[in-house]
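call fold(seq) -> tokens
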Amino acid sequence: MIATLALLLAQTALPQPNVYAPPPKAGTAERLAYDAQLGGAAEDAAIEAWLAVHADAPAALRAMLFHRLCNDYGVTLGGEKRVTACAEANKLAPDGEDASDEKIAEAFRAAPPIRAHGGATVATIANPLGSKSANVTVNGITLPWFMDTGAEISVVTESTAAKLGVRVLPGSSDVGTSTSNRVTGKLGVIDKATIGAATVENLPVLILPDAMLKLGKDYTIPAIFGLPAFAALGRIAWLDGGARLALGSAAPMPKGKTVRVYWHEDGLGIPITTAVGTMGAQFDSGADSTDLRKPGLALLTTDQIASATERNTTVGGAGGFVTTKVRVLPRLDYSIGDIPLTAFKVDIDDSEDGAGRIGSDMIAQLKLLTIDFATMTLQASPLK
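ret:
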């Protein structure tokens, strides 16, 4: 019994460090993961170097670091390095997400890395999910793509892929979605996509059946512009409450106070602060509203928790639509840096990944929201 327990513990990866807590001791594996969540290529290289000379380190530590690289390289690099990182993470601490990521990494193993250049400021388009889309052109065909920092890979429907001439790769992968469903899709590459004068090349995409992105009877989401595409452009900014989107060199980064952002387990993380404290939450521009997750209850007073009521809610995404019963907080007052913000009718779910998910209802309250991936910082100013 004791030997079995030890084996199970060795196969459980340690959680990633809290980036808004005091940093772990310098030189430790935990500090490397902490720094990588706030950093980029140099921090990931430091993890690689540590793993190379600590082959006998505890499996849980190595799994934590390989998982960090698997996530990071999924956004920024791909290729052989991501294949190795995801495979090692999944071998040391078998995990459904790492297994799925390993399949995706394998499919894109020989694909050139995503890259982008130029800049553009474009008008956004309100979409039926309550967030924003923008026109993207591929092979002379322009369609409104959802602008979704919450998507860990860009997505197109099967009919859109055929229309755009997406280069389909061998194999398929099942992925997790915001609805908790597992979705199986094909994988492909778009050689060049443009938004105004900004260009993204070698864009990896997940190709899903049209039914998975159908909203009601008359509307199907044609495509979703995901986090790797935004990161490749280097900087993004929502302007005037989200009425315009600036990309790449066109995105402003005014002088002033900045806030650190990080690589969240589900993509991009930002700090949210209440009167009780500060925690990290996923930033999901494709969601129309903000919600809290179980750890986020630590940001609430006992009176706030008691004020929550129960109702049915429908969540939509790449996995279709699911209706569940959730608790709902009538109002959440929080801040990003020094900017006070408010969310209404905030769902509270049982997920453990961070304090919550901040949706496009935050963007609607801001004159400017800039995220710079080179420095992993955010800058915001209020709408009024």
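Residues 2-107 form one domain.
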